[in-house]
Every structure is written in C-alpha cells, then in structure tokens.
Amino acid sequence: MKCDLILVLDLPTRDAMKNILHQVGSSVRWVKIGLQMFTRYGPDLVKEVADMGYQIFLDLKLHDIPNTVAKAVESLSTLPISMLTLHTSGGAEMLQWANKVRLETKPDLLLLGVTVLTSMDEKSLLETGVNFSSSDQVLRLGKLAENSGIQGLVCSPHEISLLRENLGSSIQIVTPGIRPSGISAGDQKRIMTPDEAAKNGANYIVVGRPILEASNPAEAANLILADLESIR
C-alpha cells in the first residue's frame, strides 16, 4: 500500500512557512494547514500555498451542530483543498450533513473523521467521561464515521491495524504521532516510526517538528520519504 508524507505547517509566520517550503521544495507534495496558520492568515494562505504546487490538507477539526458544520464545509469547499477534518464525536447527523454537502459542492474532497487525538491517553479520555480504552473509542468512532459516509479517518498509528481489520478497505487512514527513530515524542503519547505506520496500513503520515526543527529540513523530509519508499 502506497503511503505518502504530509508536512505540517504549524509555524508562527507566513515568512517562516515560505522558508520551510523553499527548503523542502518539490520533495514534499502534501502539506497540512491547521488552526495556527489558518486563524492568523485565513483562506488567502491556503490559496497561496496551493499556487506553489502543493496539495492541501486543511485541518480545522470542525465540531458543531449539523447545520453549522454543513455550512462550514460548503464555505471551505470553494478553497483549493483536498482534505478536511471534522470530529467524529460530533455524531452521525453532523457527519452525514457534512458528507451531503461535500457530495453537492466538492465531491473530490476527502473528509477525514478525527477519532481520538494522539495527545490523549486513557486518563485523558476518562477525564472527559469516556470510560473506554483509546483503541475501543477509536474503533467505535471509526465505525460511526464510515457508516455516516466519511471516506477517511485520522487516528494514532497504534490503531491503524485495528481499523484495517474492522473497516472497509477503501477507508483512507491519515496518521499523526509519527516520530523517526531517535526523535523525542514531545506532547504525543501514541507514536510510531514512519516505516512502521506505513507497514500497518497508513495511507498518509503527518510529520511536523521532526522536519520543521531539523537543521536541514529537506534532508529530514527525504530520509522519511526514503523509509516510505523502501517498503512499497
């Protein structure tokens, strides 16, 4: 199974972003724009990065009443994005409304259901009233998303195999919490190396700090890409 790299653009300024993209060049095809950059620079930044030739994963983790999320998907569908996230914990109706709007406005957009954040563990879940293991909760939400028409899921690498065994083969799995060997876990609790995630069935791995904080970001990205290429 082909696995591709998505570079996280969690950076403080547009100039810092341009500098990183200049360094990594065309070796990276996909980039992720999240709340940090989107709330500061808005849709114009998405258009600017798309004009540079990158495919955009817009990670906003939409979570609201069904009508509000559906209207947000409708608005965002005018942007040059290929992936968009929403929280599966918003429930079946919210997910179904979002998918209906996707089909009407931008059918090639991949909606991704976020299951359990990789910064959370059993203790964190219990604090929010979820009395299940993280893997049980991921599978429960993954099934909910699939049954609601959502085409992809975001999960920690430790739940990839579980989802592959229990869900349809067409579901796309996007995996944060990736750390190359020898790199600190940071605030991520459920992590895995790039090649391990790919072997388990991830379609995309999401990598930020190991590339952004490297002395040579291009070299760091190419090493990860080489790991992915070696198992294809």
Tell me what you see in this structure.
With 232 residues, the protein is α/β, with parallel strands linked by helices. The chain has one domain: TIM Barrel (Alpha-Beta Barrel). 45% of the residues lie in helices and 17% in strands. It is built from eleven helices and eight strands. The protein has an eight-stranded parallel β-barrel with strand order 1-2-3-4-5-6-7-8, surrounded by seven helices. Strand 7, helix 9 and strand 8 form a beta-alpha-beta unit. The termini are close together. 41% of the residues are buried.
Topology at a glance:
Layout: E1 4-8, H1 14-24, E2 30-34, H2 35-41, H3 43-51, E3 55-62, H4 66-76, E4 83-87, H5 92-105, E5 110-114, H6 122-127, H7 134-147, E6 152-154, H8 160-166, E7 172-175, H9 194-200, E8 204-207, H10 209-212, H11 217-230
Parallel strand pairs: 1-2, 1-8, 2-3, 3-4, 4-5, 5-6, 6-7, 7-8
Say what the CATH topology is: TIM Barrel
Count of runs of 4 or more consecutive helical residues: 11
The H-level CATH homologous superfamily, spelled out, is Aldolase class I
Number of strands: 8
